[in-house]
Design brief:
alpha/beta, Rossmann fold, binds nicotinamide-adenine-dinucleotide, oxidoreductase activity, SDR_DHRS6-like
Length: about 250
């Protein structure tokens, strides 16, 4: 099914995990994807894994660098001949107990997760077409459900969620949809006990586990693809929580 034939997609975080799975899924359904990431090796792996019928172009760029964002959006529009869909997936995770939280941690998490998302939206929105343009921003179920040691990460993802809902209201008059997608626990390099600083109790990971286990990145990519598709034409300003029933 070529749901995205002729659709031009700019996607961040395409070098790993959910972003890679989403780039591959959209290209498999016919999209032309311009994938951005910090990791050139990750992007090369993503591009090599694509079987079409769409295509994946890549660019190394830091979502936290304003000039690099401006350049990347311009390059994407030049390469693809316009833009229809923006998908913000790039993100970082830190787990820190509150007594060890630093301003540097907070700045880094907010700059990459929230400011990066906001900058891509600011730069891409003027290029998105009225009535059919779509923005999908990956937040996290951590924005709405408490998890120990995740205060700063959760706050940065809460910022992504709130930003996305207000943006949906602001651009609705153009018929542009904005959909925040909030995954629960996903099996990617970003998640897992290895992200914990030494000496912390890791048993809390059991509390955020879905009865279905951790998601595969492809299961989140499928929901992002739905949100970006015409099937979701009446969906905007509403969070899609994809956490495998972690909180039922
Ligand atoms: P991942 O680490 O596999 O992928 C994240 C990608 O973002 C990497 O390729 C990384 O290089 C890129 N990236 C990081 N900082 C960047 C920057 N400054 N500029 C450009 N690219 C940058 O992780 P993932 O699990 O696929 O995470 C994707 C998104 O999903 C993140 O926003 C994350 O917060 C969110 N998320 C993940 C989970 C999970 O359990 N894995 C749960 C909820 C939300």
């Amino acid at each position: 099914m070529n749901r995205f034939e002729g659709t031009k997609v700019l996607l961040t975080g395409g070098g790993s995990g959910i972003g890679r799975a989403t780039a591959l899924r959209l290209a498999a359904e016919g999209a032309a994807v311009f994938a951005v990431d910090l990791s050139g090796a990750g992007l090369a792996e993503t591009a090599a894994a694509s079987c079409g019928p769409g295509r994946i172009a890549t660019r190394v760029a830091d979502v936290a660098d304003e000039d690099a964002v401006v350049d990347a959006v311009r390059a994407a529009a030049d390469e693809l001949g316009g833009l229809d869909v923006l998908v913000n997936v790039a993100g970082i995770h830190r787990t820190t107990p509150i007594d060890r939280l630093t301003v540097a941690d907070l700045h880094q998490l907010f700059t990459v997760n929230a400011v990066g998302t906001a900058l891509y939206c600011r730069e891409a929105l003027p290029l998105l077409p009225d009535r059919t343009g779509v923005v999908v921003n990956v937040a996290s179920s951590a924005a709405a459900h408490g998890n120990p040691y995740m205060t700063a990460y959760a706050a940065s993802k809460g910022a992504v969620l709130g930003f996305s809902l207000s943006l949906a209201a602001e651009v609705a008059h153009r018929g542009i949809r904005v959909v925040p997608v909030s995954p629960g626990s996903v099996a990617t390099p970003l998640a897992g006990p290895h992200v914990l600083p030494p000496g912390l109790d890791v048993s809390y990971f059991g509390r955020i586990r879905s009865p279905f286990g951790a998601a595969e990145p492809e299961q989140i990519a499928g929901v992002i693809a739905f949100a970006a598709s015409r099937d979701a034409g009446y969906l905007t300003g509403a969070e899609l929580r994809v956490d495998g029933g972690s909180h039922i």
